[in-house]
From TrEMBL:
SMART domains: C2 (SM00239). Belongs to the MCTP family. This is MCTP2 protein. The keyword Calcium applies. Residues 1-59, 93-204 form the C2 domain. InterPro entries: C2_dom (IPR000008), C2_domain_sf (IPR035892). The gene is Mctp2. The lineage of its organism: Eukaryota, Metazoa, Chordata, Craniata, Vertebrata. The keyword Phosphoprotein does not apply. GO terms for cellular component: synaptic vesicle membrane.
Length: 204
């Protein structure tokens, strides 16, 4: 019930050089659980923004009244990576030793914000639900930790996909929950949900 909503939400998007340079934003209105209406869209060219500073942008919505006020900061990506299983970041003994030193007891208060990091190896899925008429699925896996999100590639026409990817996240809150969701890629349509598991960090 507001024409001037304030969300005050922060999201972290990990921008890799092989991804597109445009940030697409959509604003939706929800009447009830079933009815939604698009109130407008806007786009931000990431490459045009100065780096290592917070940019305050007022973005008019295309073909609709209203605008969005956003703070966008582009900074070097630290602590986040996607790699193949054979080049796992923790596979190097020297790196393991550096990490042990970084998080040892005597260094606990050196950087309060540096809680730690989580490394997840996504190996495979087994006996997934068939989402296509052919009796197969085109599955990919999405990992979410807080407002961080990374995903695997899609394995086409397979109910037992193997991804063999290693994901590394910085931990910002030890009470966060790692959510791992499997979707079926469906072309231009929204992906179909194939399953989900939630893992509290405190249980690891």
């Amino acid at each position: 019930k507001s024409a001037n909503p304030q969300w005050r939400e922060q999201f972290d998007f990990h921008y890799f050089s092989d991804r597109k340079d445009m940030l697409d934003i959509e604003v939706w209105r929800k009447d009830n659980k079933k009815h939604e209406e698009l109130l407008g869209t806007c786009h931000v060219d990431i490459t045009a923004l100065p780096t290592k500073q917070t940019n305050c942008l007022e973005l008019p919505l295309e073909k609709h009244p209203g605008s969005l006020l956003m703070l966008i900061a582009v900074s070097p990506c630290t602590g986040v990576s996607i790699s193949d299983l054979c080049v796992c970041p923790l596979g190097d003994p020297n790196e393991r030793q550096q990490i042990s030193q970084r998080y040892c007891l005597k260094n606990s208060f050196r950087d309060i914000k540096d809680i730690g990091f989580l490394q997840v190896k996504v190996l495979k899925a087994v006996d997934l639900m068939a989402a296509d008429f052919s009796g197969k699925s085109d599955p990919f896996c999405v990992l979410e930790l807080g407002n961080d999100m990374l995903q695997t590639h899609t394995v086409y026409k397979n109910l037992n996909p193997e991804w063999n990817k290693v994901f590394t996240f910085p931990i910002k809150d030890i009470h966060d929950v790692l959510e791992v969701t499997v979707f079926d890629e469906d072309g231009d349509k929204p992906p179909d949900f194939l399953g989900k598991v939630a893992i509290p960090l405190l249980s690891v």
